[in-house]
Write a structure and sequence with these properties.
Pfam families: SIR2. Its cofactor is Zn(2+). Helices cover 28% and strands 12% of the residues. By secondary structure, the protein is an alpha/beta fold. The strands form 3 sheets. The protein has a 6-stranded parallel β-sheet, sandwiched between helices. A 3-stranded antiparallel β-sheet has the order 7-6-8. The protein starts with 30 loop residues before the first strand and ends with a helix. The relative contact order is 0.21.
Length: 407
């Protein structure tokens, strides 16, 4: 994950988590300085999570400002001139079509039959019931945990980054930055106590993923969150990839001695900065901070899972935290992709436009789209809608009820 400065978070698609861990608890890792919001269910987390998980939480944290926010100011042209705007849009679409044609990036309609019967939720449901859908991958960010009471990172007012003033940080992301943590770990552990896993219960979105596993359809669940709610919901460890780490284990930053979750939790709730019993250095939960690489298991699973995927479901992430966000492009070209989120993410701005020209990113335009479906709204509502249309509402409610009895 690339380290942020007080003014700018540099996007990095390398094997380092550019946007930190998604806090979904995301336990808490940083989702970055992105303007994009993982709000509530938004930003899937994700997918960053990292807050979108992160550092401590992580939809993984530290998001990158996608660059897509560049505004076409029109050189001072009046923004409210609808006629000019429509003309500009037409020129832009023509230019895109010309580039596609010249670079041979666009195949003829006859070469690629539609992936879904209809490019909507009903089409996704029909595909899931067809018997051809056997390997579903889910990607999640902070948005699937907000209804549990865990804040996302970017929502104005309620997001984590809007409420860190009491820690007197040089900039909000510093609380999930490895360099700052080494110098002053106290702010992180004070925040960790407030957001510590075990204080929250899984949401209907978590139980929907568990239901996919129960139905034998879940290939893998990739989460940016570090809140461990997937474990509480009963999702098998073999089916789970915690891209931004979690609080379940910890290591000494000095001698690398390992510690379990109970030990570090006792230290945190005793208001002590956890110190190694062997060398005295600070003990840090195994959450991905800015400046740290993602777990090896993440990369090993990605290398084999996504080529097998026949349906990708993305929930509660802004799709700005790398490398998590780019996973949507790792599925086969005809693989349907369903977004359950408060916002249609990854489809606007210069960067998104260039991605679409290269056959990447998401495309929700009815005239061109053959596989991307957006179910806009809260993640929990979207999961209930999907379960109802699949005829699974009783099964989902059963898992939710059983989960409440265990809590």
């Amino acid at each position: 994950m690339a380290s942020p400065s007080s003014k700018k978070l540099e996007s990095d698609s390398s094997q380092s988590r550019t946007a930190g861990a998604d806090l979904n608890s995301e336990g808490a890792v940083a989702d970055g300085k992105s303007a994009a919001s993982d709000s509530g269910d938004a930003g899937a987390d994700a997918v960053g999570a990292t807050a979108d998980g992160g550092g401590a939480t992580a939809d993984g944290g530290g998001a990158t400002a996608d660059g897509g926010g560049a505004t076409a100011d029109g050189g001072g042209a009046a923004a409210d001139d609808s006629g000019v705007a429509e003309a500009d849009a037409g020129v832009f679409e023509s230019l895109m079509s010309l580039i596609e044609q010249k670079l041979k990036l666009k195949k003829s309609d006859g070469e690629e039959p539609p992936v879904l019967q209809s490019v909507d939720v009903a089409g996704v449901v029909a595909f899931m019931q067809s018997g051809r859908c056997k390997n579903i991958i889910t990607m999640a960010g902070a948005g699937i945990s907000t209804s549990a009471g865990i804040p996302d990172f970017r929502s104005p007012g309620s997001g984590l980054y809007s409420n860190l003033q009491k820690y007197d940080l040089p900039y909000p992301e510093a609380i999930f930055e490895l360099g700052f943590f080494r110098q002053n770990p106290q702010p992180f552990f004070t925040l960790a106590k407030e957001l510590y896993p075990g204080s929250f219960n899984p949401t209907p979105s978590h139980f929907f993923v568990k239901l996919l596993e129960e139905k034998g359809l879940l290939l893998r669940h990739y989460t940016q969150n570090i809140d461990t709610l997937e474990h509480v919901a009963g999702i098998s460890e073999s089916k789970l990839i915690e891209a931004h780490g979690s609080f379940r284990t910890a290591h000494c930053l000095g001698c690398r001695k390992s510690y379990n979750q109970d030990w570090i939790k006792d230290e945190v709730f005793a208001d002590r900065v956890p110190s190694c019993e062997s060398c005295g250095a600070v003990v840090k939960p195994d959450i991905v901070f800015f400046g740290e690489a993602l777990p090896d298991r993440f990369y090993k699973a990605v290398a084999t899972d996504f080529r097998k995927c026949d349906l990708l479901i993305v929930m509660g992430t802004s799709l700005t935290v790398q490398p998590f966000a780019s996973l949507i492009d790792n599925v086969p070209p005809k693989c349907p992709r369903l977004l359950i989120n408060r916002d249609a993410v990854g489809v606007t701005g210069v960067a998104a436009t260039l991605q679409r020209l290269m056959g990447k990113g998401q495309a929700f335009q009815p005239s061109k789209n053959k596989r991307d479906v957006a179910l806009i709204g809260d993640c929990d509502d979207g999961c209930f809608t999907l379960a109802r249309q699949l005829g699974w509402q009783d099964d989902l409610q059963r898992l939710i009820t059983e989960g409440k009895k265990k809590s």
